[in-house]
Amino acid sequence: MDHAVHTFISKHHMIQPHETILVAVSGGPDSVALLHFLCAMKEKLSLHLIALSVDHQLRGEESQADLRFVETMCEEWGVEFVGTSVDVQAYKKDTGKGTQEAARELRYAFFEKMMYAYEADALAMGHHGDDQAETILMQLMRSARPEAVQGMPATRRFACGRIIRPFLTASKDQIASYLEDRALKVRMDPSNEETEYTRNAVRQYLLPFMKESNPQFHKHMQVWSERAREERSYINEQAQKVLETVHFSSNVEKFVQLSKQTFKTFPLALQRTAFHLILNYLYVNQNEDISYLHEEMFMNLLNDEKPNASLDFPEGLKIIRAYDDISFSFSKEQEWKGYSYILEMGEELQLPDGSQIRADWFSGDGTEDAHTYLCDSHHVNLPLVVRTRQEGDRMRLRGMNGSKKVKDIFIDQKIPARLRPTWPIVTDHAGKILWVVGLKKGGERTSLSSGPWLRLHYKNKADT
């Protein structure tokens, strides 16, 4: 096992000389073997090792004894130790999460805190090849999407450094032999033998059958994981070419638009990948309710010959196809009515959708962007008004002769029809449109103007 693990560490560039390595140690076989293995590398590579242990307070005195066991072991081995206790039950009540998820979140929060405290290079974890096989089998049971069946990465970014898993190439039996050969004592968690959790059921019933059929099954699964990640990375890179033809916007709220015909010119694998990358952009957090069925629904919509169609996705995401145009946007449970508000200087106005706009006087040089507006104050009649569009709205755009309909601005900028009635527009007291927020600007802006400037700044609800 030693040679295989050293080769695996070298292949994935996991550990370099003089690094600070935190080691997650529960007292169980895997983590004790990992700490012992890294201790053997310590002097040769001049490593700074710190063992971290977490008492989840789920097994009373027994889990406290685990913590003390790890502390005593570290004293004997000359390894720095940091332990902590977390209240999983209280966290469950506060968040509504399950036991395993709550324990994991609290554990990783502690690990992250320690990474920054020690400015550590890596956090080593004792996951082994059997864990990897279990993970992949569980992912395959839950999802038919290739990107969701990749197992655990050998290394990944975490806090100020990375997580490393040196034992992914070793089996559970090899680790047991390693411990036996060196007469190392460990603590056993009885919950690992329970079958109420899916992983433990896979561990007790499914994996033994796989390993009986192929004793090297854990190695095959690790090779699968590495190849799946490499190939998925390449496909994601190629899918960026698809996304270059897609319009992304977050002026007021996130929405996406694409051309059906252009999208379909790309290979099917890239269409599917681009679809999931679009969803990753729209959903702030990964949505577990999205499955291959939603993917199939989208592909059917893409290939349907009907001129108009729509789909309803989780969390109010609506996908609408109108001829060649396909848009993704979040529908509101409540449709906002038109509004009109006075915007006082030096104050911030909150709009019905949660976005904000502020008006100030400003002196000196200033730069504009999509969410910032500057105007010569001598050509503005106060007070300012923030309102929704009105029938026949027109504005004189900077650098253009004549005026343009606000309706045409929305069309040119590909603003979804459902967003147009509530889009914020800023006018002066005389009704002159100064700014269709995030889209087009009017009003005078001369660089040599004397006196203060009017400055408006808009923050959409994602930034507030």
UniProtKB/TrEMBL annotation:
GO cellular component: cytoplasm
Residues the record lists as binding ATP: 26-31
Domain of life: Bacteria
Enzyme Commission number(s): 6.3.4.19
InterPro entries for the chain: Lysidine-tRNA-synth_C, Rossmann-like_a/b/a_fold, TilS/TtcA_N, tRNA_Ile_lys_synt, tRNA_Ile_lys_synt_N
tRNA-binding as UniProt keyword: no
Annotated ranges, domain Lysidine-tRNA(Ile) synthetase C-terminal: 384-456
Molecular function (Gene Ontology), one example: ATP binding
Reaction(s) catalysed (UniProt annotation): cytidine(34) in tRNA(Ile2) + L-lysine + ATP = lysidine(34) in tRNA(Ile2) + AMP + diphosphate + H(+)
CDD domains: TilS_N (cd01992)
Keywords per UniProt: ATP-binding, Cytoplasm, Ligase, Nucleotide-binding, tRNA processing
Localization in the cell: Cytoplasm
EC class (word): ligase
Gene3D superfamilies: 3.30.465.60, HUPs
Matches recorded under SUPFAM superfamilies: Adenine nucleotide alpha hydrolases-like, MesJ substrate recognition domain-like, PheT/TilS domain
Any one Gene Ontology BP term: tRNA modification
Comment text on domains: The N-terminal region contains the highly conserved SGGXDS motif, predicted to be a P-loop motif involved in ATP binding.
Known function: Ligates lysine onto the cytidine present at position 34 of the AUA codon-specific tRNA(Ile) that contains the anticodon CAU, in an ATP-dependent manner. Cytidine is converted to lysidine, thus changing the amino acid specificity of the tRNA from methionine to isoleucine.
Family: Belongs to the tRNA(Ile)-lysidine synthase family.
Protein name (database record): tRNA(Ile)-lysidine synthase
Gene name in the database record: tilS
